């Protein structure tokens, strides 16, 4: 049973066994018709879910993966007749510096965003741990960043950072730190930093909620014991809070990683992958391949890679989790 | 016990994959032409004119219905989604009778079988000679007519008369003069910047550098042959002198025009569609329009749209009648001034009585537009050219290296 963590599979998998066991011990065995209906019932119950997931998740997913093995341009999408080319699209893409550039940008963007999101999320969770006046209001306000539609937040960031009329430059000018205009989103390094900050800003509240729940779960007695032993607040944080928070932290890191790695809208709205491809992550690359240049096959290669990385990471996570639980 | 469900899942997955592979040909088979509806007499008309451009178009279609009694059903789809919607509907068999498409996408749409060959209609009609060559050519694919030009537009130089006078510079007629004037304006403080033009990531931001390349005698397909380098050097000098804001790399066309209307930039490069915008947003601004500066040659960039008939349209004859009606000079004379655009044909004098718009119209004769293979890959080629511009302005490549690299990438894109 432990294997069936993803919930939905469990009832369907377990029930026939239970039915069979009950039938075997029953003094009056049910007739074949009745037993058939009983076996059918659980399947019928899960059928809608299976159909829904199959049609909306499994089918498009396999379709997209399959597409990466065909030669598909606009003509093939409309008229059909796509040719099977095996791994040619992969060979083509893996040979292209632009693909690896996008992969590298994705890696930098994701790692930096996850780290910053986690740091801010943890800071907020620790800050809001102790009750104080206005804590609930503050928590609600922070959540706005997570609830706000990306199209709003990304454009707000774009305007804030504008070189001529942006608020940031107005502030810097008022402080005498800047003369003239400085276009943050027009400079490669600054643009990457900007999309990382914007992403962390919107995901941090989510990390905060997870980590706050984790903090609640740490027994208070441990802190009392630590205090009695004379541990400083820093040592308490380093040797008590952090290790106790490890399982929740891992889950939060994994979820934020997945969200960030596939994130498209923040970057697309803020920089469209610019300047000069400095923020062109794999999702932006895939979008351009498919919808700007009508190369659906190579776009599928990018989306397949985009899918494999988080899946590999999730598998590693579940394995680590299982090892930890059985230990 | 724990193994069985896993194995069952695996079996199910294998079966599903196998089924999908078997249907793969069918899956990627599309479904366009065979689903031609018999024709319901109502002409569906898809366009990407948002407010306010859609208003005169839809009014024009209403006039058609009043005159002929034929019902037209317009549908607005935002530009960003237009191509994708056509692709999806082509695969689903739900294409419109008439589609107003970006001129440079005509070849791609024809190649994909999304729009019909109109050669028979166009030959019988016999009005090809009324059209400017560059515009008409955008509707030609492999010697056949797939699109009829709907209207035309090109790029010219908007200038702020007061700012130029304050800085003591004349309207530049060459790019050398432009560089000097832009720097002088920024130095004098008559405006923050001399020139505003879009340089944003993607094809939109390539217009300025392409115009400069065309003037230097180059082409989109021939960017590396010296002209591209000259153009990149020219833009590099303009940003270095402060005549052109480094921020142009983050500006789209609307942003560049906003900088002009609010007086931040003394000159801007844009198409005639911005004329009404400037008039409305800056009624007190003393401004005018001049032909684009020249270098080795005088050239502007044609921006155009074509009328096409969706593949499998059951009302193709009626759709063609509508296209023919829309292109009558008398209809265009009423429509184009409202729409703020220029005629694609030379026999509509009443459409350009406005002196400002006449400057744009006068340039149409030597307007450049990509054709053939270049048109098929123009979006990608323009994206590559913008990247070269970005690399030069940010200092990560020399103009010569960036132009050579761009040329290699364009050649590769054309070959793919």
TrEMBL record, chain A:
Q: Could you tell me which Pfam families the record lists for this protein?
A: BPD_transp_1
Give the record's GO biological process terms. transmembrane transport
Gene3D superfamilies (UniProt xref): MetI-like
Identify the residues that the record assigns to the ABC transmembrane type-1 domain, covering every copy: 103-317
Q: Which SUPFAM superfamilies match?
A: MetI-like
The entry's cellular-component GO terms read: plasma membrane
Record keywords: Cell membrane, Membrane, Sugar transport, Transmembrane, Transmembrane helix, Transport
**What is this entry's stated membrane topology?**
Multi-pass membrane protein
Q: Give TM regions.
A: 43-62, 102-128, 140-160, 192-215, 268-287, 299-318
Q: Give the InterPro entries listed for this entry.
A: MetI-like (IPR000515), MetI-like_sf (IPR035906)
Family to which this protein belongs: Belongs to the binding-protein-dependent transport system permease family.
Name by which UniProt lists this protein: Multiple sugar transport system permease protein/arabinogalactan oligomer / maltooligosaccharide transport system permease protein/N,N'-diacetylchitobiose transport system permease protein
From TrEMBL, chain B:
Q: In the UniProt record, does the keyword Cell cycle occur? A: no
Q: Does the keyword Nucleotide-binding apply?
A: no
* Keyword field: Signal, Transport
Signal peptide coordinates: 1-24
TM annotation in the entry: none
The record's listing under InterPro entries reads: SBP
Specify the domain of life of the species encoding this protein.
Answer: Bacteria
Q: Name one GO biological process term.
A: maltose transport
The record's GO molecular-function terms, alphabetically, read:
maltose binding
Which Pfam family, giving just one, matches this sequence? Answer: SBP_bac_8
Q: What is this protein called?
A: Carbohydrate ABC transporter substrate-binding protein, CUT1 family
What is the originating organism of this protein? Glycomyces sambucus
């Amino acid at each position: 049973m432990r294997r069936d963590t993803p919930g939905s599979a469990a009832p369907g998998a377990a029930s026939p066994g239970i039915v069979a066991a009950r039938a075997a011990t029953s003094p009056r065995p049910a007739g074949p018709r009745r037993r058939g209906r009983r076996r059918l019932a659980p399947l019928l119950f899960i059928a809608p879910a299976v159909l829904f997931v199959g049609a909306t998740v499994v089918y498009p997913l396999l379709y997209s993966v399959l597409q990466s093995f065909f030669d598909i341009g606009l003509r093939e999408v409309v008229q059909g007749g796509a040719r099977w080319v095996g791994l040619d699209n992969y060979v083509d893409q893996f040979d292209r510096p632009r693909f690896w550039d996008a992969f590298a940008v994705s890696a930098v963007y994701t790692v930096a965003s996850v780290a910053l999101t986690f740091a801010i999320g943890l800071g907020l969770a620790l800050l809001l741990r102790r009750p104080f006046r206005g804590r609930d209001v503050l928590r609600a306000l922070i959540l706005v960043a997570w609830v706000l539609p990306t199209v709003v937040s990304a454009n707000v960031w774009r305007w804030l950072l504008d070189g001529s009329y942006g608020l940031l430059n107005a502030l810097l000018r008022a402080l005498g730190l800047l003369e003239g205009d400085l276009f943050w989103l027009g400079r490669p390094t600054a643009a990457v930093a900007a999309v990382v900050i914007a992403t962390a800003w919107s995901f941090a509240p989510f990390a905060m909620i997870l980590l706050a729940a984790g903090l609640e779960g740490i027994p208070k007695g441990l802190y009392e014991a630590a205090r009695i032993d004379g541990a400083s607040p820093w040592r308490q944080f380093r040797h008590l809070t952090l290790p106790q928070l490890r399982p929740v932290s891992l889950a939060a890191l994994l979820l934020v990683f997945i969200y960030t790695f596939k994130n498209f809208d923040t970057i697309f709205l803020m920089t469209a992958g610019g300047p000069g491809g400095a923020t062109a992550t794999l999702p932006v690359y895939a979008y351009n391949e498919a919808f700007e240049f009508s190369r659906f096959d190579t776009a599928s290669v990018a989306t397949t890679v985009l899918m494999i990385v988080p899946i590999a990471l999730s598998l590693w996570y579940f394995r680590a989790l299982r090892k930890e639980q059985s230990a | 016990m724990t193994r069985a469900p896993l194995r069952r899942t695996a079996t199910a997955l294998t079966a599903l994959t196998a089924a999908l592979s078997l249907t793969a040909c069918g899956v990627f088979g599309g479904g366009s032409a065979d689903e031609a509806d018999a024709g319901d007499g109502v002409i569906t008309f898809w366009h990407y004119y948002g407010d306010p451009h859609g208003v005169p178009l839809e009014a024009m279609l209403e006039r058609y219905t009043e005159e002929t009694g034929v019902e037209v059903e317009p549908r607005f789809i935002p530009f960003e989604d237009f191509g994708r919607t056509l692709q999806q509907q082509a695969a689903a068999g739900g294409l419109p009778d008439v589609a107003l498409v970006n001129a440079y996408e005509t070849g791609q749409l024809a190649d994909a079988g999304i729009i019909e060959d109109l050669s028979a209609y166009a030959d019988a009609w016999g009005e090809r000679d009324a059209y400017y060559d560059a515009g008409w050519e955008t509707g030609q694919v492999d010697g056949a007519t797939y699109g009829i030009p709907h209207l035309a537009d090109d790029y010219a130089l908007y200038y702020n008369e007061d700012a130029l006078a304050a800085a003591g510079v004349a309207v530049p007629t060459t790019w050398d003069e432009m560089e000097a004037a832009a720097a002088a304006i920024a130095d004098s403080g008559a405006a923050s910047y001399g020139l505003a033009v879009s340089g944003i990531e993607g094809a939109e931001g390539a217009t300025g550098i392409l115009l400069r390349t065309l003037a230097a005698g180059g082409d989109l397909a021939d960017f590396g042959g010296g002209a591209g380098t000259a153009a990149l050097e020219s833009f590099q000098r303009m940003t270095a002198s402060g005549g052109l804001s480094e921020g142009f790399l983050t500006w789209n066309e609307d942003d560049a025009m906003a900088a002009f209307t609010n007086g931040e930039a003394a000159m801007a490069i844009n198409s005639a569609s911005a004329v009404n915008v400037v008039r409305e947003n800056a009624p007190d601004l003393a401004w005018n329009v001049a032909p684009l500066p020249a270098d080795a040659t005088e050239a502007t960039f044609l921006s155009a749209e074509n009328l096409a008939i969706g593949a499998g349209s059951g009302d193709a004859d009626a759709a063609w009648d509508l296209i023919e009606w829309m292109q009558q000079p008398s209809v265009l004379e009423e429509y184009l001034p409202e729409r703020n655009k220029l005629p694609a044909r030379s026999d509509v004098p009443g459409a350009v009585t406005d002196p400002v718009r006449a400057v744009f119209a006068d340039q149409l004769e030597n307007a450049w537009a990509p054709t053939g293979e270049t048109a098929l890959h123009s979006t990608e080629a323009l994206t590559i050219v913008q990247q070269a511009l970005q690399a030069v302005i940010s200092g990560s490549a020399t103009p010569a290296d960036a132009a050579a690299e761009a040329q290699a990438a364009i050649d590769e894109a054309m070959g793919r």
